[in-house]
Structures are given as structure tokens and as C-alpha cells.
Amino acid sequence: MKLTISPDKHYFMKDGKPLFLMADTNWSAFTHPDLEEWREYLDFRREQNFNAVQMNLLPQRHSCTPRQWIHPFTVTSEGRFDYSCIRTEYFDHVCQYLDEMAAREMQPMIVLLWGNFVQGTWQGIRDAGRTNVEEKPYYQPMTIAEMEHFLQYVIPRLREYNPVFLVSGDVNLSEDVVHYDTVQDQMGANPETVAFYHKALQVTKNLAPDCLTTLHIAPKVVLPAQLIEAPELDFYMYQPGHVYSEPQLNRTLAQDIRSYPVSRPIYNSETSYEANIYFDRSQGRFDERWIRRAFWQGVLSGANAGFTYGAGGVWLWRQNQNFCSERGDLGLVNDWRDDLRLPGAYDMGFAKLAADMIGLYDLKPASDLIHNNPCEEIVCAANDDQSKLVIYMPFSWPMSVDADLSGYRVYGVDLEKRWALTPAYSVRDGITFFRQLRYNHDYLIVACRE
């Protein structure tokens, strides 16, 4: 059965039931792993409770040097892609890898056109003049005619796998200035870029009307009305990014998107990769506690359709500590097999289990229920009749809720230890007061009316 959108436009469904997507990031899936490695990877992630993989259809702008380079297009003597000459053997290879995913019932989420294939993106500013596709990073934008030719070939080949099509990849589509961590991101989107992706979205949906479509965007991007109102767009994605200084983006971006005039499911597509370095600090790496906070704050702030995790050595597929990038910081990751086993991946498998058992699909942000909230880091969500409340606490605190939970079944989870807890609480004047939990970990509290 195909992935569909719920009648209330808030979550995904499959076989008539709510489905929470828990994806892994493997941008270089179609260019780097051999078939046996791909099978090993899929089996491992499936065992860890992932049900989707987010991939780049074309060679990733930044990734590790592969053992053998497979090109999707003929390469000219000048080292440029000839977009008029599509190499069918590359896409035969892609389909073989998608067959392996289908055998394991894992959902493909495929980026069609990363920013380095499109005119006017920040990748073009940063990588201007780098046109040799044998090197990385490289930049070679398509014309609209070349884009249409490419999509008219590839979409019919891929649609039988019922993928989610991420039409764009890591781009600014905002009309306003975007203040992020690089000079290239601090500008409004090029109107040519927005028009290009709008057309690509229309072409994709026309060729695969039953496949879900979305846009993978850069951090802090507010979509223009032209794209928000596009009927071809099925759900919203956002990217908090990879900076240490703004962890709040996981929740605030979800909150901002909930104010869009067209309601659609919201999905956190790219938070900080575990074991990657901070992009805005000279030292430090993101760890599993950071990942857990990103997940729960995003989901309880409105992004309850799904989440994409990423591991340092996996997303760019580092093999045997080989060279990864001219940017040394991107190369400071482990072998993909090592980072496949990072603790945050198991935390996300546990989060997927919790999402399925609790039922996060019908929750809406309700952090205003936190009484005298000491900060905005403690978040809460509830269903419409408040018969179910879920609270995330990134640290131990004597928290209280503006609700009488005396008729509820209340339980807690120490997310660091994955211990089941029974929180102590009392009710006075319609407010439920929780005793501070014993350790300085992060916690989930769930209350269900009996």
C-alpha cells in the first residue's frame, strides 16, 4: 500500500493506519556502498527500528571518495555532465538498491535535485567555477529543459517503488533574508531558483500523482506563498541544521510552519548529525542527548509526522577512514560501520517504539499547559480533548501542569537509561505538581485519562 496523508492533514497513513516515519540519512546510498554493504546497512537499520531512508538520487555534493565512481550522465572531456545523455546503467543500479528496500518494507525518501544542480542556490555561490564532476564539491546547474528531460526519464522508473520525492535539496526558497551560519545563506532566495523548483514540483506530481512530494530546504527558510499554496506539495519539511548555538530551531521552526495558511503534515528532515562537529564552533561534537532533545522538542512542537536521524560516518559513507572532503571538519568522522552503532540511533529506535505505542499522530502543541515554565525547553503536546498529554523535560525539574491529572494513568521514562518510572505528583487547585525526578537526565512523562 502507498503512503498517504491523513484526512486532517497532520500525519502519514499506510494501510489505513497512522504511520510515523523514522528515517536515517544516507545521502550517498546510490553511489558509495556496494550491494552487500547496502544489504548489511538496511538490515542493521531495520533492526534498530528505522522504517525509511533519506537519500540523494544524484551524486552528493559533499561525500567521501567512493571506491568506484558511477555517473548518472555521460561526462564530457571537460569533466561536465551532458544532461542530454542519461546513463541507464546508473538508474538500473538505483532500482536494484530500491528492490532491496522494498524487500525489507523500508520507505525510500529520494532527493531529486540537490542545490548544486540548480541555478541561483547558495551552493552555486560557494562552489562557483567548480564544474568538474570528478571532484567534490562541484556545481553544474541544469536548465529547465534539462530538468524536465531528466524528470521525465527518472520519475516513471522510480514511481513503482512508491517513494517520497524530495524535489529540492538543502536550498533557500525564502523571499526574506535568512540569517544562518554562512554568508551564502544570509540572503533572500533567487526568484529563478523558486520558479525552477516550483516547475520541478509540478512535473514530478504530474508524472507520479500517487507519490508524496515535499521540499528539502536549508535552515530558517520560510516558504513563499507560491510554494505553500502549490497543490502539488503534500507535506512540509524543515531543517534545524548543524549549529550548536541554535538548538531551539528544532521546535521553533515546527511552530512557525503550523502558522502557514495551508495545513499539511510537518516533518523534521535534518537535525544535527550525531558525531558531526559543530559547524559554528571550533571544537565539539553532537551526541545522543542532543539528538533526543531534537526529536522530542520537534515532535511535541508540531512536527509529529516523522523525523530523520543522521550519523556522522553514514550520511557521507566514510569507508576505512578514507578522505571525505576538502573541508577537514567533514572528514573527522568514523567509518560508516562504527557510526552505524552510535547510541543515538538506538535512542531513535526507542523513540519510534514510543511514537507507535503512545500515538503521537493526534497530538498538538500545548506547552502553555506547563505551569510557570522555567524555560521554553520543557515542551508539551496533547490531543484535542486533553485525554492524552506528553511532556518532554531535557533536565530534571519540579514541573507542574495546568491540568488536573488525578483521573489519569501517569508514567515516565528516563530517556538516557530507558528506565520505566512512576512519577510522584499531587493535585491542588486544578494544578498537577510533579516531584523532581532523581537524576539529571532527560525525561518523558505521559498522562492518559482512564
UniProtKB/TrEMBL annotation:
Lineage, highest ranks first: Bacteria, Bacillati, Bacillota, Clostridia, Lachnospirales
Record-linked SUPFAM superfamilies: (Trans)glycosidases
Provenance organism: Hungatella effluvii
Residue intervals of the Apiosidase-like catalytic domain: 7-352
InterPro entries according to UniProt: Apiosidase-like_cat_dom, GH
Record-given protein name: Uncharacterized protein DUF4038
